[in-house]
Structures are given as C-alpha cells and as structure tokens.
Specification:
The chain has 280 residues and is an alpha+beta fold. Helices cover 21% and strands 30% of the residues. The chain is globular, with a radius of gyration of 19 Å.
C-alpha cells in the first residue's frame, strides 16, 4: 500500500490515456476530496485504467475510496497525491438527477471560485519548488469551439504504446495498442477576470477522445467532426451553466489545460428531497 491515508474522492476528471515508459498507459484523474470536512481538489497520479482489472476502474462522478500519499518534492502541487489503485474501493455513483442537484451540493464552494487568469498568476508568482493552486472549476464566457484533426503519436510515444501492448506473464495475448484521439477540440474563452486576454486550451478529457473514435467508426470522419462541433456548442450555449475543469502541467505550471466540462442546465436544481444527500 502506498500510504496509510485514505481519501474519499468524487471523480470529476479523467483525461484521455497517455503513453508512459514506467506505467505503460496513464490517466490523470482529478476530483473533489470529501473526507476533510469541506470539499477540496485532489489530483490522483499515476492511475491506470484500460489495463487494470474491472474492480479498479471507475466512472466520472463516482465516489471512490483510495489510499494516497504525497509525492513529495517530485510534484510540489498541493493537490497532487499518489494513489494505491490496488486498494481502490467504489462507494457509489452520483447521478445527474434533478439537474445535477447532488453533484452541485457536494462541490458547491468550488464552482466558479477562481479564474484561469488568477490560477496562472498564482503559479507565475512562485518558483517550481513552491506550491500554488493547480486545479479549478472556472466560469467561461464568449466561447468559441473548433474541431481539428488530432495529432498522431510521435516516435517516442509510439514506442511506449507498442511496449505497453506486448504480451507478458499475466496477459499472454497482449493488449490492443492505444490509439491517439482522432480530433482536437479547442475551447476559446474568457474567464471572469476583468482583464482576461482569452484562453484557448484543448480538451483533454476521456469522453472527447472516445467520442471522436466511436463516432468516426460509426459515422465516418467528416460526420464525427460535425457531431463533436455540435455537441460542444450545445454544452456551452445559454441553456447550460457551463464551467471548465482546468489544471496545469507538472513541468509547465503556468499552462492550464481544459480537463472537462461542467454543464448542468441554467435553471436552479431542485433541492426539495431532504434525504437526497445521504452517504452510501
């Protein structure tokens, strides 16, 4: 076990898998920690997903319990923790009922609590060895969506992918090689900082990459591109109270990517059910 501290986490972000020399394939997972008396951000890395047993997999908006330990000086970001995935336990999935009512209740203080500009400034103000906030859920405005072809694996990435798929003692048939996301969805937006110059990150979440692969296979590349454009334009329209989960890069602390979309309807959630938030 990595460490004796156990975290209860509502998973809010799962990125598309990345090739890794040490771990084969990794997914960056972020969420909201629920066991500290108030909600706070947590990043779980490294996490395997495609190559692990079913019991060690999990969904977005699933509450999990997992032992964690600080990565120490290897990663000074205060939210980062190393998980022991072999001891991960699923608690329950928090569904979207009543316009995401329970999801909102669980993370309410974090919704729109910062801006991308403020996060960048906080990280520019410190050197690499010092902590600074690295995750947030930011309100967006003046959004423009663009969909382009994704980037193929470079030679180094392809070597890692091929190695991860090789047969071994525990999997004599090997794995199907991980494919890169076929499209890059870019979100150009302004955050709530008055002098925001605009931000233009690509979406790194699992759903975007997987939707592009599935829709390309079922409908062809051209139609899949159109479907992605339509999907994200709808999620950012006036009918949704849309925010972006953002997070920075380990080696580039002032660069914040878009890790996922928070998109309940704009009408207030129904909180009338007094027993709705009971813990499992």
């Amino acid at each position: 076990m990595v460490g004796g501290e156990k975290a209860t986490v509502l998973v809010t972000v799962k990125t598309y898998p990345s090739p890794s020399d040490k771990y084969g394939e990794t997914v960056c997972v972020a969420g909201v920690r629920l066991d500290r008396g108030h909600p706070e951000w947590i990043r779980l890395y490294p996490m395997k997903f495609r190559l692990v047993d079913y019991e060690q997999q999990f969904a977005k908006y699933e509450i999990i319990e997992v032992p964690v330990a600080s990565p120490g000086t290897k990663d000074p970001r205060p939210e980062s923790m190393r998980p022991d995935q072999t001891h991960l336990r699923s608690v329950r999935i928090v569904g979207p009922a009543k316009n995401w009512a329970e999801r909102r209740q669980l993370i309410r203080p974090l919704i729109g609590a910062t801006t991308t500009c403020d996060l960048i400034a906080a990280n520019q103000a410190v050197d690499y060895s010092q902590p600074a906030p690295s995750l947030g859920l930011v309100r967006v405005r003046d959004v423009r969506i663009s969909v382009a072809d994704g980037d193929p694996w470079d030679d180094r990435q392809l070597s890692k992918v091929t190695k991860a798929a090789q047969p071994d003692l525990f999997n004599p048939e090997g794995f199907k090689e991980l494919q890169p996301a076929p499209f890059r969805v870019t979100v150009r937006y302004r955050c709530d900082s008055p002098a925001c110059p605009t931000h233009e990150p690509s979406l790194l979440d699992w759903e975007t990459g997987q939707a592009g692969r599935t829709w390309s296979r079922e409908n062809g590349t051209l139609r899949a591109r159109e479907m992605l454009q339509q999907k994200y334009e709808e999620l950012f329209d006036v009918n949704h109270d849309t925010h972006l989960f953002v997070g920075n890069l380990h080696q580039h602390r002032a660069s914040f990517s878009a890790l996922g979309v928070w998109s309940p309807k704009t009408e207030p959630p129904d909180l009338s059910d007094g027993g709705f938030f009971s813990q499992a």
